[in-house]
Amino acid sequence: MLAPILAPTLACALLGACSTVEDAPKGEAAYAAIPSAPAVGIDYRISPDDVLRIQIYHEPGLSLEDAQVTAAGMVRMPLIGDVSVAGLSAGEASDVIAGRFGDRYLVSPQVTVFVKRAVGRRITVDGEVREPGLFPLDGRLGLLQAVALAKGPTRLASLGQIVVVRQSDGQRKAAMFDLGAIRKGEAPDPEILPGDTIIVGLSRAKAILGGALLALPAVGAGFVALDGGL
């Protein structure tokens, strides 16, 4: 068995090149890594703890006004029991529920699912901020506003080392921004998306992310891919 210290080094040698969060793109490359997204067109995916309104046309007894998605991603419906909806859009969840009812109980059921409370639309702000935590994301949000949700950076925060971590194409990726330059209007304010993690301070980012080594060949244009999930 490889010694713990040698294992990452050998893995890097075999894969050709490695990087850490310190190698996250900066400056113009960071902005290319997280271009503005058409937030209005994002098809929201249902998450555990979301609250749904589920309406079955002409079947008020089967409809639910406040159906909470369980930690396992299920919603419990009358007659058909638990239905897995996590990871689905509202339209896809409607089709799945309609299919279950149509199999045994209803003829051509018409089902509408509406997300009343989208817990999955959250961001994490951590590191050198006054009140780190999870925050709801309503509408479009820039990095400056995201840090403000955590009551702003601490007095000794490293404003030139703001790491944004995003899950993309099955990989955890990162880019680094200069909050001081953004505040002065010298750099654009990048858009923050649901699920993003913002970490103020490179040293805190390294501690939180574990300083993981990763193979550069797996990195696409933009973010540096980080090993593992958040």
TrEMBL record:
Gene3D superfamilies: Outer membrane lipoprotein wza domain like, wza like domain. Keywords: Signal. Residues 43-116 form the Polysaccharide export protein N-terminal domain. It holds the Pfam family SLBB. Residues 123-170 form the Soluble ligand binding domain. GO terms for molecular function: polysaccharide transmembrane transporter activity. InterPro entries: Poly_export, Poly_export_N, Soluble_ligand-bd. This is Polysaccharide export outer membrane protein. It comes from Sphingobium chungbukense.
